[in-house]
Amino acid sequence: MAISREVSYRLERLILDGGLAPEQKIPSERQLAARLRVSRSVIREALHELQGRGVIETRHGKGSFVSTMVPGSDDLREQGPLMHLFEGHPRTLYDLLEVREQLEGQAAFLAAKRATSLDHHRITKAFRALEETDPLSNARPDHGFHQAIVEASHNPILVHVLNSLKNMMLMTVQASVANLNPRAEKRKKIVQQHRQLYEAIMAGRPASAQKVAMAHVRFVSESMRDMENEGSELIRIPVMPEVSDNQHPIG
Amino acid sequence: MAISREVSYRLERLILDGGLAPEQKIPSERQLAARLRVSRSVIREALHELQGRGVIETRHGKGSFVSTMVPGSDDLREQGPLMHLFEGHPRTLYDLLEVREQLEGQAAFLAAKRATSLDHHRITKAFRALEETDPLSNARPDHGFHQAIVEASHNPILVHVLNSLKNMMLMTVQASVANLNPRAEKRKKIVQQHRQLYEAIMAGRPASAQKVAMAHVRFVSESMRDMENEGSELIRIPVMPEVSDNQHPIG
DNA sequence: CGGGATCACTGGTCTGACCAGTGTTGGTTG
DNA sequence: CAACCAACACTGGTCAGACCAGTGATCCCG
To answer: Which residues contact A190 (CB under 8 A, 6 or more apart)?
Structure first.
């Protein structure tokens, strides 16, 4: 068995068994090397592996620290081992929106085709809540509206898949920011799109509903891209995953 | 920014974009070091990080390989709660195919638009294998063909979602039976659709490719429905999602 | 023809050096 | 005395080159 594997294994067990608490500092690489009687290379490789697993974080000049969100089992990754794709891969967000565009369109299509009167009632309710709310303060009505439409498609698979994609999206920086900081003129267009979508579904026009829904997602996607390109000072989108500010260990 | 981080980032992006297929061999550490103009240590640390993430696997004396379980299979367990949808609800299969129709169409569209020459090569290879095989005896070439197309879309999210859907499909009885027992006349039509799909993608006609792919899935779905209605006795086959072993790296 | 030695790969480990951030410490200076 | 800054002692990050250890093809000999 590879030594570096043994080392990473031992360290991980030590951490997860509670021997080391979150934010606690791990002995320096040189100390570990001496203690475990292996070269520093092996230690570094083992640490990188744990880093990949999200068990520890390393800061240049400071040391390695047990990751805060790790205790027990990685609950974030449990929701989808795919989640790590987003860490530092903003492009994946657009891949996701690309798929979502298609599926939201289908959902709208099916909703316009299959919605029952109960669905109509729910969608209407969600739509009114959406119009009465300031999108700046709360993004939930927006979710509620789309959710009602998706559910009106009466396709549980579609509901499930779109839910997964939405959860993934919420994990990204841009997505959240774009939800909270839409430009005035864009917000207007979005409101208009929502209205068109609402009417198409209520009127039972599947093709139209699909078209509008797809245009909507595409518009949102392009808006995000614009924000990204403008390089607004508000949001610095890290091309690479950067370590958060220096949180002092318990010391 | 740490160089090893950049390296692991670049490699991961390369793999997830579909530039490197599962089971495919990654260049040797010394080659990568020379190519990226960094020391071998940096390469090894980056590879260990990807290893920690489960993106690659390394075998002493052989090399490093893209992990097979990366694209899908991660939420096989996660989808446990969803699996109950199938129990006694064959309708869900058609819900699934409904979604798949849309996504396979998108995959074909994007593949026609974005496929590189390497993708063309892979698709062609898969297509030839498909034509030379008796579909009665083996359904795998069919999977390989569609898989190659999906991967040519260069959208990792799409790859992942379609993989999940496919795995779910394989859990159903009808789906497998339909794969194994197509009627002669239907088989002919399917072959024709495959050929059309192949040509549209190779010729770079996205709209056409999308249309054909969607028609294909819809046709398969309707064929299943027919079989079901005919009340043909279903053969119980223990179906487990199989790991695709038809991916041979370009030697 | 069969089989074992050889050789050219692959990853695994070690060494020791130097670069680059971080924080402390102690001395100089206003 | 207080403020500041330079030196120092840490930390991780990178490099070079060497050697060990699996793997598999190839070649040569029995």
So the answer is: A135, A182, A216, A219, A220
Tell me the shortest Cα–Cα distance from B133 to chain A, in angstroms: 32
| CA B61 to C1' D26, whole Å | 18
Order of strands, sheet of A56-59, starting from the edge strand that comes earlier in the sequence: A25-26, A63-66, A56-59
Span B83-103, average pLDDT = 72
Structure tokens belonging to residue A228: 């990204």
DSSP H helical ranges for chain B = 3-16, 29-36, 40-53, 80-83, 91-114, 117-132, 140-152, 156-169, 173-180, 184-202, 206-230
The rounded radius of gyration (Å) of the Cα atoms in chain B is 20
The domain segmentation of chain A, as residue ranges, is 3-66, 79-230
SS3 content of chain A, % helix, strand, coil (to 5): 65, 5, 30
Fold classified for B80-230:
Four Helix Bundle (Hemerythrin (Met), subunit A) (1.20.120)
Q: Which of B162, B43, B9, B147 is nearest to A85 (CA)?
A: B9
Going by the DSSP 8-state scheme, the letter that residue B67 receives in this structure is -
Give yes or no for a contact between A212 and A193, defined as CB atoms under 8 angstroms apart.
Answer: yes
Q: CA-CA distance, B163 to B166, in Å (whole number)?
A: 5
CATH 1.10.10.10 fits B3-66, yes or no: yes
Tell me which residues from 19 to 38 on chain A have a beta carbon below 7 angstroms from nucleic acid strand D: 26, 28-31
Which long-range contacts link A130-135 to residues 24+ away (Cβ below 8 Å)? A130/A194, A131/A191, A135/A182, A135/A187, A135/A190
Kindly report the nearest CA distance between residue B72 and chain A, in angstroms: 9
Q: Which of A114-128, A229-243, B83-97 has the lowest mean pLDDT?
A: A229-243
Backbone angles phi, psi at A88, to 5 degrees: 85, 10
Torsion of CA A219, A224, A229, A230, to 10 degrees: 100
Q: Domain A79-230: which topology?
A: Four Helix Bundle (Hemerythrin (Met), subunit A) (1.20.120)
Averaged pLDDT for residues B216-220: 90
- pLDDT value at residue A150: 92
What tens digit of pLDDT does each residue of A177-232 get?
555 555 667 778 888 899 999 999 999 999 999 999 999 999 988 887 776 655 44
Tokens 């080659």 belong to which residue?
B31
Quick one: closest CA in A to B6, which residue? A240
Residue count of chain A: 251
Q: How far apart are CA A181 and CA A91, in angstroms?
A: 20
Question: How far is Cα A228 from Cα A36, in angstroms, rounded to an integer?
Answer: 47
